[in-house]
Amino acid sequence: MTRLLFLVCLLACSGAFACIGKISPRAEDLDTYESVFVAQVVGIRLSGYIEAREERGPDFWTDTTLPYDLEVLLLRSIKGEAEAKQHLEVGGCGVQIPRAGESGIFAVTESGKVIALYESERGYDGALVDIASCAAGRCRHIERPR
Question: Which domain of life is it from (predicted)?
Fold first, then answer.
């Protein structure tokens, strides 16, 4: 009986720390973002991977994208202030690592967390149209709370 309880607890607890899915910038969340902009990736540094490999060796495992640093050049500001050249730290559950030269939508929360969606990812074009429309006051396909 003790073994059964242990196994049930182990299974229940292990899922609590698992990666449950990617978070992408969304028009519905526009009010929660300090800034939203489109930028081109011109530099990538896999800082989280470097640290993990140094600490845990080459065979470490994770179910999330470790933090990485991006250098980006602004293409278009959608909401709030955005500098022409920025350094961003991105990472988290299901976050893709972009290609150099790729564009992305970057939403920065009030706490400074960066949420990214890259042009090679599914839903990029629709998200860009929806977010830009809502920022201009013309939400498409969604109702924004007033």
Answer: Bacteria
